[in-house]
Amino acid sequence: MTTEILLAGFGGQGVLFAGKILAYCGLMDSKELSWLPSYGPEMRGGTANCSVCISDEPIGSPLVLAPDILVAMNGPSYDKFINAVKPGGKVFIDSTLVEAKCERTDIECYYIPSSQLADDNQLKGGSNIILLGKIIKETGIFSLETMKKAIEKVVPPSKAHLIANNFRAIELGMNN
Amino acid sequence: MERNLMKGNEALAEAAIRAGCKCFFGYPITPQTELAAYMAKRMHKAGGVFLQAESEIAAINMVLGAASTGVRAMTSSSSPGVSLKAEGISYLAGSDVPALIINVQRGGPGLGGIQPSQADYWQATRAMGHGDFHILVFAPSSVQEMVDMVTKAFDTADKYRVPAMILADGLLGQMMEPVTFPEIDANAHDKSSWAATGHKNEREHHIINSLYLQPDGLEKTVVERFKRYEIIKAEETDAELYLTEDCDILLCAYGASARVAKSAVNSARELGIKAGLFRPKTLWPFPVKEINEAAKNASVILDVEMSMGQMIDDVKLALNCSKPVEFFGRTGGIIPTPAEVLEEIKKLGGAQ
What we know:
The complex is a heterodimer of chains A (176) and B (352). Chain A contains 6 helices and 6 strands. With 176 residues, chain A is α/β, with parallel strands linked by helices. Chain A has a single domain (2-174), classed as Pyruvate-ferredoxin oxidoreductase, PFOR, domain III (Pyruvate-ferredoxin Oxidoreductase, domain 3, 3-Layer(aba) Sandwich), CATH 3.40.920.10. In chain A, strands 2-3-1-4-5-6 form a 6-stranded mixed beta sheet, with helices on both faces. In chain A, helix 5 (144-154) runs antiparallel to helix 6 (163-174). Chain A starts with a strand and ends with a helix. The relative contact order of chain A is 0.17. In chain B, 40% of the residues lie in helices and 19% in strands. With 352 residues, chain B is α/β, with parallel strands linked by helices. Chain B is globular and about 70 Å long. In chain B, helix 3 (56-68) packs parallel to helix 4 (79-94) and helix 9 (255-270) crosses helix 12. Chain B has 2 domains: 4-198 and 223-235, Thiamin diphosphate (ThDP)-binding fold, Pyr/PP domains (Rossmann fold); 240-347, Rossmann fold. The chains are: A alpha/beta (176), B alpha/beta (352). The interface between A and B is medium-sized, with 20 and 23 residues.
């Protein structure tokens, strides 16, 4: 089985970083996986997105066009991708920044005020990680232990002091 | 063996260092830049030289100079930058100097775009510069294969004294996948019979040259080189045959588009359509034997590329036009989708 994940938002919101954590979770669990970023001018403050495939078999095309899991971190990303989500798919929305409410009945949407939660809990820029916490709670794709191991691997040694904050953000996402 | 998660561009660089590459000369260009950046960080720690040249032309000529001394040297770029290197690559070939050139292709012609493309197939396999010559062309389709092919490219280039190219694209360069780095013997090739290392009055000069003003002298060097090409064609082809044994419709694709084609083949099989995939791993020499084996039971061939159709020429030549060869491609930086390719398979009426 292959789980296709698409993460989208503004450049700077940590979309690629969150995707990287999911990719490392796949590595930790000995899965096949791919991580493919959008690159080019959109990286400079426009919309950025990132495709992550997690599978038990070798990955074919790494480009996610119809996600099983969509993470929408801003309005334009939500508008662009909401109709691409596979029936039965799950959508994780930063409801601080996305006002829209989904009318599709064949998918499950989770509205998490993750930017607000990050600000309220002194986790500036942690909205992306809060959403990851919600994903593992609602989909069970990875365990909390796996995700913690992945974070320890992804956060560079020079920023090791941020690991605890990332753990806190994950747990915040799982409990909201 | 430990699995690492790396971008294709970074994996190419790490693999080259592990393969004993001692000199990297380059000039930045998207979507290849992470390769040079990785080299800038790591090469000096590995006892080698990283140098950002003033231009692509300077970089390839530095490769010619360094490789002439027998060290493993390389450069990397993306499509417009590779065009600038064409003259130097011809000089490498004419001087029988092995070296590695990496092309992380983007859309063209001209400055084109920065998204993934496979529109440099003709350039790589037909006309990578002026004059009668070929270079070895390897086409990876995963990050692991990028790693494996770097070693293979250096080894084969050294063995035949022919420049080698890895023809990748922006998708493979930018994506991350798990990779392992096998243990390799990086110093296996003795170049003492030709490398310009200083004769110290103890032996004849070793002359690295591509200028022959006497036509008979020049003809002799070219003919000798083409004899080597015949050996390469006989011994160095490589391809993956996927579900080809009973296939009625055979897809042909390399690199990134082969991943898309493989997804489409799997979907077609689920529908009961007997589809298979032929994926060349060497583009020059083209795997003629292998494609004929793959196509033996097929009634129709579908060539899939991220271009307007370039490899299709080699497919037709290799099959001697014995079967109908259809084409599907997207270009300009657009990646075809498995669904689009599946539609084409259905249109061709792949037998169930």
